[in-house]
Amino acid sequence: MLNKANIEHEKLKVGSPFFKDALAPTRDEATLLFLLDNLGKLPAGFNGELFIPLLMHANPKIRMLAAKNVGKLKDEKFLTELSQLAATEENTFARREVISAIGRMRSEKAIPILTKFLADVDPKVVLQALRGLLYFKKKPEVQTALDFLRKHPNEIIREHLNSEMNNKSTQSQSTKKDRHHPTSPDILKNVIIHADVQEALKVIPDESIHLTFTSPPYYNARDYTIYQSYHAYLDFLTTIFKETHRITKEGRFFVLNTSPVIVPRISRAHSSKRYAIPYDIHPRLTDIGWEFIDDIVWTKPDYAAKNRNGGFFQHRKPLGYKANSVTESVMVYRKKTDKLIDWNIRQYDDETVEASKVMGEYEKTNLWHINPATDKVHPAVFPAELAARIVQFYSFKGDLVFDPFGGSGTVGHVALIHERYFLLCEKETEYFEHSKQLLDVNLFTDIKPRSLSLTELKKSELAERNSGL
Ligand SMILES: C[S@@+](CC[C@H](N)C(=O)[O-])C[C@H]1O[C@@H](n2cnc3c(N)ncnc32)[C@H](O)[C@@H]1O
């Protein structure tokens, strides 16, 4: 019987007739597929000729796996067979594997073949040809060929090419620490700024915060007069989130809580209008350089939703259905970088990483059931539980957590509880005063929470900058 253990056992026997028999093209497809898929690392001297007839097999999956196994041998003597197959192979998965096997040979003779496949119709084949050619990227003819790809319509190809040509991939594996990464300016720690965030952001230095969690004002949902138009509203948010990107440290997170809003109808003769804020802001965020990471859905109990079902419940006529909205979106983004998340974690000392671990039970799906919160002063607070999850999942102890639309100060309070620092901004005096009260608590922190006006913030920023000169 064929199983993984006896495949491993037979591989160790040099010159065993086992594989000649087991890989015969006349074998049944299930056995061939199992064997080819489970051969693993091939020992030196493995007879690669056994795969060659399988490159012509009627089943494309067998052709693909045969090419994959030839690739493991990295032997240029198979170049002719593989390039013949590449020229005629119609199955794109098999063609990709053939091109990958050719690339793995690292043979100069493969350069013209790989170059030809840079023009393949399938981006995954192009990507394999590109990866094979990058080994020869110093050769002028290869550089010319790769230049042709700079305008390729596929973004993954363009990004891979750019990062490899700029040697960024080696940087992403870099073990060198950026000693500033875990730190933030003291003047920004545990501060509520009483100002329009557009002005406040101008004073905040580049790369000074670790995490942003925010829920922006909802487009004219409560008051018609605030924004000239929906477009102007999105432009306003885009400006704020572009500046947030600038002040965020490399590879760190931005989490945005929004949901579609309804702007009430003008009269009974009109219908109300619904605006899909999360979907409309998303492309703007990725354009800024926020990389999409996760879409978390915050679900509230049914009773928390405004009833939109009155009419339909009575008449039951199609087209009149309106769903009660019990969810809000919590979109997670990361400041785009070539560095892996591991690099961010490595910037912290072992004690901080250990102390910041999220222990015990936690939500494993993207559906978060959390009851909504209410506040006696602020009409639209998010629950502390929501902020607590975000703070714990996306920051370390001692990090600086920012909320440009601070409201009642939920993010600040949660940051303190979890031994992070906060930086909040709130323009409405009533909410600013209210958040000051929430944050004037005796929680463990080495820096007492304080509030600053824009003028005070500018002065202290200037003072800190001058003291550093
Ligand atoms: C949805 S609420 C945030 C509530 C907050 N998450 C909480 O739990 O209390 C949005 C807040 O942004 C504030 N805001 C709106 N425009 C602003 C601006 N340009 N600068 C600063 N704050 C602003 C509003 O006054 C409001 O308190």
Q: Would you give an account of this structure?
A:
The chain has helices at 4-11, 18-22, 29-37, 60-73, 79-88, 92-104, 111-116, 123-134, 140-147, 155-165, 168-172, 197-203, 230-247, 277-288, 310-315, 341-346, 350-356, 384-394, 410-417, 429-439, 454-467; strands at 191-194, 209-214, 248-258, 261-263, 273-275, 290-299, 327-335, 367-369, 400-403, 421-426, 450-453. It is elongated, with a radius of gyration of 29 Å. The chain has 469 residues and is of the alpha/beta class. The longest helix is centred in the middle third of the chain and has 18 residues, at 230-247. It folds into two domains: 4-171, Leucine-rich Repeat Variant (Alpha Horseshoe); 186-467, Vaccinia Virus protein VP39 (Rossmann fold, 3-Layer(aba) Sandwich). The model has no long low-confidence stretch (mean pLDDT 92). It has a nine-stranded mixed beta sheet with strand order 8-6-7-3-2-9-10-1-11. Strands 4-5 form a two-stranded antiparallel ribbon. Strand 2, helix 13 and strand 3 form a beta-alpha-beta unit. The structure holds S-adenosylmethionine. S-adenosylmethionine is lined by residues 196-198, 215, 217, 378, 380-382, 405, 407-408, 410, 425-428, 431.
CATH fold name of the largest domain:
Rossmann fold
Shape: elongated
Global structural class: alpha/beta
Strand content: 5-15%
- The name of the CATH superfamily of the largest domain reads Vaccinia Virus protein VP39
Give the tally of structural domains: 2
